[in-house]
Write a structure and sequence with these properties.
The structure is a homotrimer of 154-residue chains. The first copy, chain A, is an alpha+beta fold and 154 residues long. Chain A has three helices and seven strands, in the order αββββαβαββ. In chain A, strand 1 and strand 2 form a beta hairpin.
Chain lengths: 154, 154, 154
C-alpha cells in the first residue's frame, strides 16, 4: 500500500514542520497504543492561515481549508510522535473539531469535512474516524478552527 | 439483571435506528476495550427534534429532552457497535455534553441531566459516568444539544 | 523525589476537598490504567471562585487563576481516585481547557496556562500533558473556566 506521504504528495501536499506548543504543554503523548495529539490550529509558515468566524465573514470554503490545514498540523505532530513513520498509525480513532462561528451558524459539518475528507483520503479505511464537531465562541489567536486527534498506533 | 432494552421499554422508550453520519466519518469505533461514539444530535424520525438555544427561547425542560434524545442516539450507535447486544457495555466511562446557549445562560447541568439521568436509570452503577458539560455558540443543524460518549465494553 | 503534596505545600497550596458532582454522574473513573476526571469548575470553599467572561470584565490574570483553581479541583478528584496517593499518577496525559469568553477574545492560551503551569510545577516531566483549549459561550454556574483531565495511573 502506498505510503501516507506518497498520497500527500499526490495531492500536492506535504506534512508541515510540527508547531511547537505556545505554552507549558506538549503536542503529543503516546500512552500504550493510544497517541493523543493536542488541539492544532491552522498554522502555515509560522502563522495562522485562516482567522475569523463563520457567519462573520469567513466562508465555508475557507473554514473547510482551515480544518484541512489544522489536520495537516495534527499529522505533523503524529509523524514526530511516530519517529517519522506515519505508517505506525493503525487507526484514526477520533477527531475533535472546534469551529469558531456566530450563534446563528449551522453548517459546522461542512467545515469539519475539510479535516475528515483529507483523513480518509490519506489513511483509507484506517482513516474512518469518530468525530465530534461543535461551534465555539472563539479560538486561540482568532483561529477559525482547531482540530484534536486520537490515534491507535503499533 | 433486567436488560437495558427491557428497562428502556419500561420507560416507554426504545433504541432508535442509528443515524448515519452526515459526512466522511463513522459513528463508532471499538479500540481494545474502549468504544468511542461520535457526537450525536437529538435526532428523531430523521430530523432534529429540538433546535434553538437556551436563553433564546428554548426551555430547560426542552434542552433536557434534547440531551435525553441525543443519548438515545448514542445508545443506538453503541448497540450497533456491540452487534446488537447492549449487555456488552461494562461501563459508561464518559459523556461529553455540548449545550447551545446564549452567553448569559448558567444552568447547563440541568440540561445535561437529561442524558445523565437516563444513563443511570438504564445502566445502574455501570452507568455512573464522568462528564464534561459546556455551553457552545452553536451546534450543527441548529441542534440544542450534542452528546458524545466513551464506553468500556467486554 | 519530593511528593506532589510537598510541592503543593511549598507553593502555599493544598489539595482542596473534592467537590461532589452537582448531578447524576461521578467525578472520576479508573478504566484500566486510565483515570478520567470530570470537568471541574474553579470551586473554592464551596463556591465558584471566579465567574464571568474574558472580554467582558474578567482579566487574564483572573482567568489564569480560575484555571489554576479548576486544576486544583481536578487534583482533589484524582487524589480521591488514587486512594489518597497522588504518587500513583504516572503521567498527566491530557487537559481539556474551556474558557468562557466573548467572541472577540483571542488569548485563551494565557488563561489555560494557569492550569498547565501548575501541572508541570507539581509533576515535572510526568506533568507535561497534551491539551486542547477552546473559548466557549458560557459555562455552568457562570464559571470563567472548566478543566477536565485524563491521567495514566499505576
Amino acid at each position: 500500500m502506498e505510503s501516507i506521504e506518497a498520497r500527500l504528495k499526490a495531492l500536492g501536499l506535504q506534512v508541515p514542520e510540527p508547531v511547537a506548543p505556545v505554552a507549558n504543554y506538549v503536542p503529543f503523548i503516546i500512552a500504550g497504543s493510544l497517541l493523543f495529539v493536542s488541539g492544532q490550529l491552522p498554522m502555515r509558515d509560522g502563522q495562522i492561515a485562516v482567522t475569523g468566524k463563520l457567519g462573520a465573514g469567513v466562508t465555508i470554503a475557507e473554514a473547510r481549508e482551515a480544518c484541512r490545514i489544522a489536520f495537516l498540523n495534527v499529522l505533523a505532530q503524529a509523524k514526530l510522535a511516530c519517529g517519522g513513520d506515519l505508517g505506525r498509525i493503525a487507526r484514526v480513532v477520533r477527531l475533535g473539531g472546534f469551529i469558531a462561528c456566530t450563534p446563528d451558524f449551522t453548517q459546522h459539518a461542512l467545515a469539519m469535512n475539510g479535516a475528515s475528507d483529507l483523513c480518509v483520503e490519506l489513511f483509507g479505511e484506517a482513516g474512518r474516524h469518530t468525530r465530534t464537531t461543535i461551534g465555539v465562541a472563539s479560538l486561540p489567536a482568532d483561529a477559525t478552527a482547531e482540530v484534536e486527534a486520537l490515534f491507535l498506533v503499533h
